[in-house]
């Protein structure tokens, strides 16, 4: 009986490994080489134009990919508008009035639909856009594997449960990323995308003196300024570099979820390393983005290729 059980277990594990390998095999860097050979250049051109128009858009597009992959996998579910049959992810507390760049993705997708209708998925557009946005502001580039399909539904509850919050503690962040197959080092590297972009002034709640200083520097057009924006990196807010980690070492992280990465915990050493060596950070960031982009993709006959990213075909 023991021998038979071992054989069955080995067979089951073999099937699982074969299934995982099959899924990953369907993602490849040259997925559109014959069906839409100009897809990548079209996306790159659209993203460069958008970032030239608004530098902050680079951070928004990287974040959009992140918020997509952490809910249901990298399936473009974050792009779906609410319908009568489901409430999607756009109004989740960590997306509402925060996640942006939908118009950029829509514009690029429209060009692709003219070029090669029904071929390039919205999920792949989001993944490639994040890479091209990083490169457009001096950040690293990486080979994006392609072949993701788009989901036909989205869920608010999943977004609420899976997206990290600006006030999360270190243990919560490490555990949350771990459930996605990402290490603590991946988590710190990906957090480094906060070297560009902005956040609401009200979220400054680490060092009292620093938070007060940042709030004074926030635009004063609306109310007390808490709903206005402040740069996440005060030193070089529009360049992708390792100043974010230098800021953390100096206890000048804007968000609680930033500063907890350097607060006497298990990730202090990684932050110190990245603060001293920008090349290591860039390399680790690129590798982490590749791993994140491979979270539970829909492939093969799963899902669909949406013609318009905000609605199911």
From TrEMBL:
Secretion signal span: 1-25
Cofactor(s) in the UniProt record: heme b; Ca(2+)
List of residues binding substrate: 164
BP term (GO), one: response to oxidative stress
EC number(s) stated in the UniProt entry for this protein: 1.11.1.7
Location of the active site: 67
InterPro entries hit by this protein: Haem_peroxidase (IPR002016), Haem_peroxidase_sf (IPR010255), Peroxidase_pln (IPR000823), Peroxidases_AS (IPR019794), Peroxidases_heam-ligand_BS (IPR019793), Secretory_peroxidase (IPR033905)
GO molecular function: heme binding; lactoperoxidase activity; metal ion binding
Subcellular localization(s) per the UniProt record: Secreted
Disulphide connectivity of cysteines: 36-116, 69-74, 122-309, 201-218
Plant heme peroxidase family profile domain ranges (all copies): 26-313
Record-linked Gene3D superfamilies: 1.10.520.10, Peroxidase, domain 2
Cofactor note: Binds 1 heme b (iron(II)-protoporphyrin IX) group per subunit. Binds 2 calcium ions per subunit.
Primary localization class, coarse: secreted
Broad class of enzyme this protein falls into: oxidoreductase
Role description: Removal of H(2)O(2), oxidation of toxic reductants, biosynthesis and degradation of lignin, suberization, auxin catabolism, response to environmental stresses such as wounding, pathogen attack and oxidative stress. These functions might be dependent on each isozyme/isoform in each plant tissue.
Name this polypeptide is given: Peroxidase
The organism of origin for this protein: Linum tenue
